[in-house]
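Predict both folds.
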Amino acid sequence: MQAVTSFLYDRGFDILEHQQHDDRMGELFFLRTEFAAVDGTDVDELTAAFGPIADRFDMSFTFHDERKPRLLVMVSKFGHCLNDLIFRWRGGTLGAEIAVVASNHEDLRPMAEAAGLEFIHIPITPETKPQAEQRMLDLVEQYDIDLVVLARYMQILSDDLCRQLEGRAINIHHSFLPGFKGAKPYHQAHARGVKLVGATAHYVTADLDEGPIIEQEVNRVDHTYTPQALAHVGQDAECLALSRAVRWHCEHRVLMHGSSTVVFR
């Protein structure tokens, strides 16, 4: 820690926020420092200058400027997560710029275009899935995308696409104990009398819905909730968990380590 703060102090930088975590079980030390640099500071020059210090302590590190990351938001027919992201983006609280919205259906085109966002329809069938996924990668390149957000995008990404987007794609899904898969999960949950409804936002990996978790939101429910009421609670949880995960990622507060994350909130 002293090596980092001394490096910044010697260059006249002002430390605005500093957080650290000592993982004693894994024998690792995690650190996030936000600082105000002097005018004309170059990220590449900082990276080169800090390199010898990082080598001395066997550090992995990155410097980031204050540019807001650009998002590709992928959707299908459910609009609650997209609507929430748009609201936070317009209000300046998302921590990112929504560059483009893409979907395998046309249903949410009016929502996106009403917000002044470009909407791109990428139809997908089992036969055209490779071409559709290549189109998604083309959008990442074309719009200079930093993060792909699967805002209830109801398609399973191929293992190859997951690898290409490693650490750059976030998914949201409902969370139940026990887990209910398949059609009408909230009806299944109602039939089993669940007491908790929630949502999990995680990085996308080839292991379906099992990537490193960034955020989870949970709400207590009871026997008075209908399947529709459970779905409404679940949608609210999905919006909260996803927006937090996106903002924390875009503010560089999430450090991935294997199948887990350290989140400096």
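Second protein follows, with its predicted structure tokens after the sequence.
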Amino acid sequence: MTATLLFVQALNGLQFGLILFLIAAGLTLVFGVMDFINLAHGVQYMVGAYLVAAFSAWTGSFGWALLLALPTALAFGLLLEAIVFRHLYDRDHLDQVLATFGIILFLNQGVKFVWGAAPLSVPVPELLSGSVEIASGLLYPVYRLAIIAAGLVVAILLYGLVNHTRIGMLVRAGASNAAMVSALGVNIQRLFMVVFGFGAMLAGFAGAMVAPILSVEPGMGDNILILAFVVIVIGGIGSIRGAFLAALLIGLVDTLGRSFAPNLLRLVLDPAAASQTGRAIAPMLIYIFMAAVLFFRPSGLFPVKR
């Protein structure tokens, strides 16, 4: 274990955490404001990746593809909200889980029908290709730094939107007491639509940003959805600040754990046993971390006051 490797893996963990935040931010708002369990939120991430892949192939430019993918992801989210999810708000959580799981299956098959089952690749934009020296002899991909920068900018803008605008005030009020907000004359249906569409666009943006560094394939949003739920449980349901901090912690715990768990276990085990045990324990670390946080903070790090 070296300081250089630790720094590189910390940057990777930060990048992964910010991608998780983009997904979890919309999910925690939808869950916190609307009390709606949306298992299909991960497919918005997948759709965003597929949209940027399609538009990139069409325009030949990642920048134009991203500009086209964001409003398309927003429109797709609003369409799903109007056709399906709007009719589930007053149903119990079991109905919501079953219906949104059905949406996952339908859309996973839908992208196979449109784009095929084979993974797609998106080229890294030429402007952000290559590496930059961030320390003496240490190179790091420019595009990964761009993902970190984009995630931080979105986090700052989202913080300002939620905490310093009228729509943000309504969202925070809706997360605390949606019934009271509706009784005060706010069109709660419109608020739900805005929150859902915005959450879908954030998830689509996350998918679009990772498309050049990951394979774009059916089902790519399923595993990351589980991590997004872990993030909002740790951070506190409905809390953007909690989602941001929890996402960064999960990103660092997962990345550093997978990189260094086998090395640390070599201090007490022989190399073969340490490698095998480390690979087995590493994926469990985020859930152990979640259990530890919930033991001391059962409502999460920054629960919304109700």
